[in-house]
Design a protein that fits this description.
Radius of gyration: 18 Å
Number of domains: 1
CATH superfamily: Nucleoside Triphosphate Pyrophosphohydrolase
Number of helices: 8
Largest sheet: 7 strands, mixed
Helix content: 25-40%
CATH architecture: Alpha-Beta Complex
CATH class: Alpha Beta
Strand content: 25-35%
Structural class: alpha+beta
Number of strands: 13
CATH topology: Nucleoside Triphosphate Pyrophosphohydrolase
Amino acid sequence: MRALSITAAAHLAKWDGVAAHPRDAATVLVTRPAGAGIEVLLLRRRPSLQFAAGMHVFPGGTLSDGDRAAVPWIGPDARAWAARWHCEPELAGALVVAAVRETFEETGILLAGADERSVVGAVDGPEWRAARRRLEDGELTLGAFLRDRELALRADLLGAWGHWITPAFEPRRFDTRFFVAVLPEGQEHAPHGMEADSSFWIDPADALRAGESAELAMMAPTLHNLRDLVRADAATLLTSTPLISPIEPRLIVVDGQPMLTTESDAATA
């Protein structure tokens, strides 16, 4: 269980009891080897943004219309992803496209290659940055971008990780699937896009401690996924098949105070 933030409490006070429809979104925990373990990439959202201002998050965002367009594709198909996410193949495919697109837009990391044995190398420079801006502005689809460069999306470089749905009383709600990926060899992140003002690699355990102590501002889904990452086997991040069920925090009242909990909280209370 956790207490409501000041912002969440204000949203609850204004809530009319009608839940907004959640928007589908995709987020990626990008990792890289570091010593005997791994590091994960965190972005800090700009303080001027209306949603999650100043929060430390993983790359990601909502689906766009272009994410449903045809994309050159290598790896598990939409039907395989649909089985993992328990949704229709059309949505599953769009989620994978959104995950790759948003990661490239926000970090410059591109999960694509010419064939199943190759991954594109360094993707920084004026031409690549211009393409990122056009993707972010909705002027270009990922499919068109990849075809122009004779590349294909590498769906095999992603793993399914988690699924969170924003609480019913929030005015902006998201139905977010979390993926995991490993930084391709030869690439480095090149921030930051329009929404983030800083980014850095950090040990997941250090990130979790900083988030739990409020040294780094984080939302509950970020903390939850960091806990899972700390417990994970770095060698099998992409090939593990965790049981993924949607988590939608719900309101309960404890000693007269509204609190947020999940089914896993309730099972151990």
